[in-house]
Amino acid sequence: xxxxxxxxxxxxxxxxxxxxxxxxxxxxxxxxxxxxxxxxxxxxxxxxxxxxxxxxxxxxxxxxxxxxxxxxxxxxxxxxxxxxxxxxxxxxxxxxxxxxx
Length: 101
Prior knowledge:
CATH topology: Alpha-Beta Plaits
């Protein structure tokens, strides 16, 4: 991995399937975005949370991608199905693997 980013989307109790479908629609564009190496999806059904494990060429590429998603309205569209709205999305910008530890 070059630059690890973990993004967590907490769905409302009755909207997990809707969120999964939204991810199925959105993730092909994410994977095709410049600088995206990979995106893997994990579901924690006990908390209704979708976790994306992303690998990016650079954190700047991921920031450009996030701005594009904001500009194109994806976060606004997800707002009603997320527990706490779009502001509840958690992003961990982990960066490159630490080899000295």
